[in-house]
């Protein structure tokens, strides 16, 4: 399934607590029509809450409004993240990202 077809949830603390699982997987942060960041974690909910608490300011400067995710076991989540980054080219996954908007 394409990531654009997955459910997208509001990137707010209450929405993350309600919708994001405490499981291993890959997650994406987005603006409508634009991928900001695609990451992976052993705990998707914790990773998203970390973003909301300001631990990754270079991502939050883009003010992502939505998140999505897919569950992936530990052994396959890094490969899946790399595949998705290659396909969708999120702005904050670029090797030389700038602290200013492109």
Would you mind describing this structure in some detail?
The chain is of the alpha+beta class and 102 residues long. The chain has a single domain (3-93), classed as GIY-YIG endonuclease, CATH 3.40.1440.10. It is 34% helix and 23% strand. Strands 1-4-2-3 form a four-stranded antiparallel beta sheet. Strand 2 and strand 3 form a beta hairpin. It is globular.
Helix-strand pattern, N to C? EHEEHHEH
CATH-defined architecture: 3-Layer(aba) Sandwich
Sheet having the most strands: 4 strands, antiparallel
| Radius of gyration from the alpha-carbon trace, in angstroms | 12 Å
Q: Give average pLDDT, whole number.
A: 88
Distance between the termini: 29 Å
Overview in brief:
The protein has 102 residues and is an alpha+beta fold. It has one domain (3-93): GIY-YIG endonuclease, CATH 3.40.1440.
């Amino acid at each position: 399934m394409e990531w654009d077809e997955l459910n997208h949830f509001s990137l707010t603390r209450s929405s993350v607590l309600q919708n994001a699982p405490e499981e291993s997987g890959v997650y994406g942060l987005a603006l409508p029509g634009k991928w900001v960041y695609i990451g992976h974690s052993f705990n998707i909910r914790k990773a998203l809450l970390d973003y909301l608490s300001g631990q990754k300011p270079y991502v939050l400067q883009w003010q992502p409004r939505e998140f999505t995710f897919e569950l992936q076991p530990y052994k396959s989540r890094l490969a899946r993240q790399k595949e998705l980054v290659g396909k969708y080219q999120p702005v904050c996954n670029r090797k030389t990202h700038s602290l200013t908007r492109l």
